[in-house]
Prior knowledge:
By secondary structure, this protein is α+β, with helices and mostly antiparallel strands. The chain has seven helices and eight strands, in the order αββαααβββαβαββα.
Amino acid sequence: MITEKDAYSMTRDEIFRIFRNPPQLYTSRLCLRKMLKSDTADMFEYSCREDVTKYLLWSPHQSEAYTAKYLSYIQSRYRAGDFYDWAIVHEESGKMIGTCGFTKLNVESNSGEVGYVLNPDFWGKGYATEAVRAVIRFGFNHLRLNRLEARFMVGNDASFRVMQKVGMTYEGINRESIFVKGNYVSVGVCSILRSEYFGNTI
Length: 202
């Protein structure tokens, strides 16, 4: 049974305070921390690649200078407290290998959407799943969200598998629901609820 305490929803100001200086999240092999301007080279290494951005809303970065400018802009978003994404850092090497976090948080409905991108050199090793699990854990344990969802463009089977591995339920396809890079694209939706995450015991 969900009690009044369990159903508590954070205010917008509380979320802003948390993400002005986002806490570091740790897994067995990764550290999720604030993105830094010093991540420019590592981020450009994967963000310039067509195979990375094929199923994303943004296009490949054309230069390292563009990536540096983007990361500078992100610092201002952190200061405002309205950016909810972490850098994924491979602890053994110290390399920034991708990003993972909340693409949006909806205070009114106490829900959020998870997004992630990973350097292809680290695909197939479970790192994306590990990072997403850490973000889901933070969403339910610290932000006390009721629902988390993730979306994938149809054809992005690898991303869909990550959603399944972290315990999300497939909800279906929104047919040709977005127009991106000159085409209408169908988008799949998966989600996990707070009650499911805690085993229906709350």
